[in-house]
Amino acid sequence: MSGFVSFVSSGPGDPELLTLKAADRIKAADAVLYDDLSAGPILELARAEADLVGVGKRAGRPSPRQDHVSRLLVDYARTGQHIVRLKSGDSGIFGRLEEEIVALMEAQIPFEVIPGVTSASAAAAALSIPLTRRLSARRLQFVTGHDVAGHLPEDLNMAALADPLATTVVYMGKRTFPRFAAMLVDAGLPPETPALLAEAVSTPDQTYDMSTVAELSQRLEAEVGTAPALILYGALMTPPDIPA
Known about the structure:
Blueprint (H helix, E strand, L loop, with lengths): L3 E6 L10 H9 L2 E4 L16 E4 L11 H12 L4 E6 L9 H10 L4 E4 L4 H8 L12 E6 L13 H4 L4 E6 L5 H10 L7 E6 L7 E6 H10 L6 E5 L11
Parallel strand pairs: 1-4, 1-5, 2-3, 2-4, 6-7
Antiparallel strand pairs: 7-10, 8-9, 8-10
Helix pairs in contact: 2-3, 6-7
Protein backbone atom coordinates (compact mmCIF):
# COMPACT_ATOMS: atom_id res chain seq x y z
CA MET A 1 0.00 0.00 0.00
CA SER A 2 1.58 3.28 -1.10
CA GLY A 3 0.65 6.82 -0.25
CA PHE A 4 1.73 10.06 -1.89
CA VAL A 5 4.35 12.60 -0.81
CA SER A 6 4.25 16.31 -1.53
CA PHE A 7 7.56 18.09 -1.06
CA VAL A 8 6.25 21.50 -0.04
CA SER A 9 8.54 24.53 0.02
CA SER A 10 7.48 26.74 2.93
CA GLY A 11 9.47 29.84 2.01
CA PRO A 12 11.58 31.67 4.61
CA GLY A 13 8.96 31.65 7.37
CA ASP A 14 6.21 34.16 6.63
CA PRO A 15 2.98 32.20 5.94
CA GLU A 16 1.89 34.87 3.47
CA LEU A 17 4.82 33.91 1.23
CA LEU A 18 3.46 30.38 0.74
CA THR A 19 2.15 29.58 -2.71
CA LEU A 20 -1.53 28.68 -3.01
CA LYS A 21 -0.56 25.12 -3.96
CA ALA A 22 1.71 24.81 -0.92
CA ALA A 23 -1.05 25.95 1.45
CA ASP A 24 -3.52 23.58 -0.19
CA ARG A 25 -1.24 20.56 0.28
CA ILE A 26 -0.58 21.39 3.95
CA LYS A 27 -4.31 21.68 4.65
CA ALA A 28 -4.99 18.30 3.04
CA ALA A 29 -2.11 16.32 4.56
CA ASP A 30 -2.54 13.34 6.87
CA ALA A 31 0.97 13.92 8.23
CA VAL A 32 3.51 16.73 7.97
CA LEU A 33 7.22 16.08 8.42
CA TYR A 34 8.63 19.56 8.87
CA ASP A 35 11.94 21.40 9.13
CA ASP A 36 12.61 23.65 12.14
CA LEU A 37 12.34 26.80 10.02
CA SER A 38 8.96 25.65 8.67
CA ALA A 39 7.38 25.42 12.09
CA GLY A 40 5.34 28.08 13.88
CA PRO A 41 2.39 29.72 12.14
CA ILE A 42 2.79 27.71 8.94
CA LEU A 43 1.87 24.51 10.78
CA GLU A 44 -1.39 26.13 11.88
CA LEU A 45 -2.66 25.41 8.36
CA ALA A 46 -2.54 21.66 9.03
CA ARG A 47 -5.65 19.75 10.08
CA ALA A 48 -6.08 19.18 13.81
CA GLU A 49 -5.93 15.40 13.31
CA ALA A 50 -2.78 15.47 11.16
CA ASP A 51 0.45 14.06 12.58
CA LEU A 52 3.11 16.78 12.94
CA VAL A 53 6.65 15.42 13.08
CA GLY A 54 9.72 17.63 13.47
CA VAL A 55 12.70 16.38 11.47
CA GLY A 56 14.64 19.60 11.02
CA LYS A 57 18.40 20.01 11.08
CA ARG A 58 20.13 23.12 12.43
CA ALA A 59 23.84 23.90 12.43
CA GLY A 60 25.45 23.37 15.81
CA ARG A 61 22.44 21.56 17.29
CA PRO A 62 21.57 17.87 17.73
CA SER A 63 19.73 16.86 14.56
CA PRO A 64 18.32 13.69 13.03
CA ARG A 65 20.51 11.98 10.45
CA GLN A 66 19.45 12.43 6.84
CA ASP A 67 19.08 8.68 6.31
CA HIS A 68 16.74 8.55 9.32
CA VAL A 69 14.61 11.36 7.86
CA SER A 70 14.42 9.62 4.49
CA ARG A 71 13.49 6.30 6.10
CA LEU A 72 10.80 7.94 8.24
CA LEU A 73 9.34 9.62 5.15
CA VAL A 74 9.12 6.27 3.35
CA ASP A 75 7.55 4.59 6.38
CA TYR A 76 4.86 7.25 6.65
CA ALA A 77 4.10 7.09 2.93
CA ARG A 78 3.71 3.31 3.08
CA THR A 79 0.68 3.77 5.34
CA GLY A 80 -1.19 4.89 2.23
CA GLN A 81 -1.70 8.46 3.38
CA HIS A 82 -0.95 11.86 1.87
CA ILE A 83 2.31 13.04 3.42
CA VAL A 84 3.71 16.56 3.23
CA ARG A 85 7.47 16.92 3.59
CA LEU A 86 7.63 20.58 4.57
CA LYS A 87 11.00 22.14 3.72
CA SER A 88 12.14 25.67 4.46
CA GLY A 89 12.82 28.17 1.71
CA ASP A 90 12.80 26.47 -1.67
CA SER A 91 13.28 22.74 -1.21
CA GLY A 92 15.61 22.52 -4.19
CA ILE A 93 18.15 25.00 -2.79
CA PHE A 94 20.45 23.39 -0.18
CA GLY A 95 17.49 21.42 1.15
CA ARG A 96 18.78 17.82 0.82
CA LEU A 97 15.85 17.23 -1.54
CA GLU A 98 17.63 14.77 -3.79
CA GLU A 99 18.38 12.25 -1.03
CA GLU A 100 14.71 12.08 -0.08
CA ILE A 101 13.54 11.83 -3.68
CA VAL A 102 15.92 8.92 -4.26
CA ALA A 103 14.55 7.14 -1.18
CA LEU A 104 10.99 7.51 -2.48
CA MET A 105 11.93 6.36 -5.97
CA GLU A 106 13.65 3.26 -4.58
CA ALA A 107 10.49 2.51 -2.58
CA GLN A 108 8.31 3.20 -5.67
CA ILE A 109 6.34 5.90 -3.87
CA PRO A 110 4.89 8.69 -6.05
CA PHE A 111 5.65 12.29 -5.18
CA GLU A 112 5.54 15.90 -6.35
CA VAL A 113 7.77 18.92 -5.70
CA ILE A 114 6.21 22.33 -5.05
CA PRO A 115 8.66 25.26 -5.33
CA GLY A 116 8.77 28.20 -2.97
CA VAL A 117 10.35 31.55 -2.17
CA THR A 118 13.99 31.22 -1.18
CA SER A 119 15.28 33.40 1.67
CA ALA A 120 17.62 35.28 -0.68
CA SER A 121 14.68 36.66 -2.64
CA ALA A 122 12.78 37.52 0.54
CA ALA A 123 15.75 39.31 2.09
CA ALA A 124 16.40 41.41 -1.01
CA ALA A 125 12.70 42.26 -1.32
CA ALA A 126 12.52 43.36 2.33
CA LEU A 127 15.19 45.98 1.62
CA SER A 128 13.95 46.86 -1.88
CA ILE A 129 17.21 45.65 -3.39
CA PRO A 130 17.22 43.77 -6.71
CA LEU A 131 19.40 40.70 -7.00
CA THR A 132 20.47 41.55 -10.56
CA ARG A 133 21.12 44.79 -12.42
CA ARG A 134 21.57 45.42 -16.12
CA LEU A 135 25.25 45.78 -17.06
CA SER A 136 26.69 45.69 -13.52
CA ALA A 137 25.25 42.52 -11.92
CA ARG A 138 24.41 40.08 -14.66
CA ARG A 139 24.98 36.95 -12.61
CA LEU A 140 23.45 35.63 -9.39
CA GLN A 141 25.12 32.76 -7.58
CA PHE A 142 24.16 30.74 -4.50
CA VAL A 143 26.77 28.88 -2.45
CA THR A 144 26.67 26.91 0.79
CA GLY A 145 28.96 27.99 3.61
CA HIS A 146 29.43 24.53 5.07
CA ASP A 147 29.78 20.93 3.99
CA VAL A 148 28.22 17.85 5.59
CA ALA A 149 30.69 18.11 8.49
CA GLY A 150 29.94 21.80 9.11
CA HIS A 151 33.21 23.06 7.63
CA LEU A 152 33.82 25.42 4.74
CA PRO A 153 33.83 23.33 1.53
CA GLU A 154 37.31 22.82 0.14
CA ASP A 155 36.35 22.79 -3.54
CA LEU A 156 34.89 26.29 -3.90
CA ASN A 157 35.46 28.17 -7.15
CA MET A 158 37.02 31.25 -5.59
CA ALA A 159 37.53 33.05 -8.90
CA ALA A 160 33.78 32.96 -9.53
CA LEU A 161 32.88 33.79 -5.92
CA ALA A 162 35.22 36.80 -5.94
CA ASP A 163 33.66 38.23 -9.11
CA PRO A 164 32.71 41.86 -8.27
CA LEU A 165 30.10 41.88 -11.05
CA ALA A 166 28.07 39.05 -9.49
CA THR A 167 25.61 39.03 -6.63
CA THR A 168 26.57 36.19 -4.30
CA VAL A 169 24.39 34.62 -1.63
CA VAL A 170 25.98 32.45 1.07
CA TYR A 171 23.63 30.04 2.79
CA MET A 172 24.51 28.62 6.22
CA GLY A 173 27.74 30.56 6.28
CA LYS A 174 27.94 32.56 9.51
CA ARG A 175 30.39 30.25 11.27
CA THR A 176 32.71 29.88 8.30
CA PHE A 177 32.48 33.40 6.89
CA PRO A 178 35.68 34.79 8.50
CA ARG A 179 37.79 32.19 6.68
CA PHE A 180 35.65 32.49 3.55
CA ALA A 181 36.07 36.28 3.51
CA ALA A 182 39.85 35.96 3.77
CA MET A 183 39.82 33.60 0.79
CA LEU A 184 37.66 36.04 -1.18
CA VAL A 185 40.08 38.89 -0.56
CA ASP A 186 43.01 36.67 -1.51
CA ALA A 187 41.15 35.89 -4.75
CA GLY A 188 40.80 39.60 -5.56
CA LEU A 189 37.49 40.71 -4.04
CA PRO A 190 37.88 44.20 -2.51
CA PRO A 191 37.42 43.98 1.29
CA GLU A 192 35.14 47.03 1.13
CA THR A 193 32.64 45.14 -1.04
CA PRO A 194 29.15 45.72 0.44
CA ALA A 195 27.79 42.79 2.45
CA LEU A 196 24.43 42.11 4.04
CA LEU A 197 23.79 39.81 6.98
CA ALA A 198 20.12 38.82 6.92
CA GLU A 199 18.86 36.91 9.97
CA ALA A 200 15.44 35.30 10.60
CA VAL A 201 14.29 36.55 7.20
CA SER A 202 10.56 37.38 6.88
CA THR A 203 9.79 36.55 10.52
CA PRO A 204 8.94 38.97 13.37
CA ASP A 205 12.55 38.60 14.58
CA GLN A 206 14.17 39.52 11.27
CA THR A 207 17.24 41.77 11.26
CA TYR A 208 19.30 43.15 8.39
CA ASP A 209 22.81 44.48 8.93
CA MET A 210 24.55 46.22 6.03
CA SER A 211 28.34 46.50 6.22
CA THR A 212 31.30 45.30 4.15
CA VAL A 213 32.90 41.91 3.64
CA ALA A 214 35.79 42.88 5.93
CA GLU A 215 33.58 44.37 8.66
CA LEU A 216 31.17 41.44 8.64
CA SER A 217 34.05 39.01 8.87
CA GLN A 218 35.32 40.76 12.00
CA ARG A 219 31.85 40.77 13.56
CA LEU A 220 31.29 37.06 12.96
CA GLU A 221 34.78 36.27 14.23
CA ALA A 222 33.68 37.70 17.59
CA GLU A 223 30.05 36.52 17.76
CA VAL A 224 27.94 34.27 15.54
CA GLY A 225 24.59 34.05 17.31
CA THR A 226 21.92 31.39 16.86
CA ALA A 227 19.48 32.99 14.43
CA PRO A 228 19.19 31.38 10.98
CA ALA A 229 20.91 33.62 8.46
CA LEU A 230 22.33 34.14 5.04
CA ILE A 231 24.94 36.55 3.73
CA LEU A 232 24.70 38.50 0.50
CA TYR A 233 27.60 40.43 -0.96
CA GLY A 234 28.32 42.39 -4.12
CA ALA A 235 27.87 45.90 -5.45
CA LEU A 236 24.09 45.57 -5.37
CA MET A 237 23.97 45.30 -1.60
CA THR A 238 23.68 49.08 -1.28
CA PRO A 239 20.57 51.07 -2.24
CA PRO A 240 20.74 52.75 -5.66
CA ASP A 241 21.68 56.39 -5.98
CA ILE A 242 18.60 58.57 -6.40
CA PRO A 243 19.13 61.52 -8.77
CA ALA A 244 18.64 64.92 -7.13
